[in-house]
Design brief:
Keywords: ATP-binding, Endoplasmic reticulum, Glycoprotein, Nucleotide-binding, Signal. GO terms for molecular function: ATP binding; ATP hydrolysis activity; identical protein binding. Pfam families: TOR1A_C, Torsin. This is Torsin. Helices cover about 45% and strands about 10% of the residues. The protein has about 325 residues and is α/β, with parallel strands linked by helices. The strands form three sheets. The chain has a five-stranded parallel beta sheet with strand order 2-3-6-1-7. Strands 4-5 form a two-stranded antiparallel sheet. A hairpin with a 2-residue loop joins strand 4 and strand 5. Helix 2 (about 50-60) packs antiparallel against helix 3 (about 65-80). The longest helix has 23 residues, at about 15-35. The two termini are about 15 Å apart.
Length: about 325
């Protein structure tokens, strides 16, 4: 996936430019008005939802559901001056389909400092919770980290990567922070955002996409309603998932499950072209074809979906340049 460019805009005709300037002015007035009331002036929280939508439209290949769910959820949350609970999203799908890319975009377009913002907190099981035998210590530390950071800035973003590798039971300490209470441990946490990322449910999503293709259904006809139950069941049935024994799924504390569909050949091609553009290079058919030829697809008979999505596109391009 291409790197995010803050303020992404589809520049076009003069008419489009004038319309854009008008929209920017209107957005500035609205932001200024809200800033006076304090809802947009917290920490370095500077949401740019039009930029996010533009970037998703241009660079996120093959994910109509993820785009729609993320944008809709964020718009409703950001525009609410007094949300009753934090925004909680759980991203699911096969490797290389764009989960980490979308989470980086959220940080980029919500906080002025992006992933480097002091109010964006990224947790990795390998780095922060490597030893299952220290689960009680990790619980204490995690509760303290979340509470302390929310005390400093209510507009904080917490990213939890590789949820299927977290010690089961650890996430139960987050449950009080994810509900609809107004104050937890003396801290106002209603404006926080929690993003959970995992591959769990990826196989089930792939199967739904494969069955749709075999029955000649358009990919865009796959609905959230048919994927949510299979993803939730996959999470609950996975003894190694971080939501295990946490009550987060059972108590419906997730605001949205965000499915990422497996990527087909033309989606990988889109990723290659994006990466070349990001490098400032013209599209080169021989490079695009070389990357596609070096990509493994499955199932064996149909050769339909990329085994690694777009995960290795950047490294493969460098090899063929």
């Amino acid at each position: 996936m291409a790197a995010a460019t803050r303020g992404c805009r589809p520049w076009g005709s003069l008419l489009g430019l004038l319309g854009l300037l008008s929209a920017v002015a209107a957005a500035w007035d609205l932001a200024s008005l809200r800033c006076n009331f304090g809802s947009f002036c917290e920490c370095d929280f500077r949401p740019d939802l039009p930029g996010l939508e533009c970037d998703l439209a241009q660079h996120l290949a093959g994910q109509h559901l993820a785009k729609a769910v993320v944008v809709k959820s964020l718009k409703a949350f950001v525009r609410d001056p007094a949300p009753t609970k934090p925004l909680v999203l759980s991203l699911h799908g096969w490797t290389g389909t764009g989960k980490s890319y979308v989470s980086s975009l959220l940080a980029h377009y919500l906080f002025q400092g992006g992933l480097r913002s002091p109010h964006v907190h990224h947790f990795s099981p390998i780095i922060h919770f490597p030893h299952p035998g220290r689960i009680e210590r990790y619980k204490k530390d995690l509760k303290s980290w979340v509470q302390g950071n929310l005390t400093v800035c209510g507009r904080s973003l917490f990213l939890f990567d590789e949820m299927d590798k977290l010690p089961p039971g650890l996430m139960e300490v987050l449950r009080p922070f994810l509900g609809s209470s107004w104050v937890v441990y003396g801290t106002n946490y209603r404006k926080a955002i929690f993003i959970f990322i995992s591959n769990t449910g990826g196989e089930q999503i792939n199967q739904v996409a494969l069955e749709a293709w075999r029955s000649r259904r358009d990919r865009e006809e796959i609905s959230l309603q048919e994927l949510e139950p299979v993803i939730s069941r996959a999470v609950l049935d996975n003894p190694h998932h971080g939501f295990r024994h946490s009550g987060i799924v059972e108590e419906r504390l997730l605001d949205a499950v965000v499915p990422f569909l497996p990527l087909q050949r033309h989606h990988v091609r889109h990723c290659v072209l994006n990466e070349l553009a990001q490098l400032g290079l013209e599209p080169r058919d021989e490079v695009v074809q070389a990357v596609l030829d070096g990509t493994t697809f499955f199932p064996e008979d149909e050769q339909l979906f990329s085994s690694n999505g777009c995960k290795t596109v950047a490294s493969r391009i460098a090899f063929f340049l």
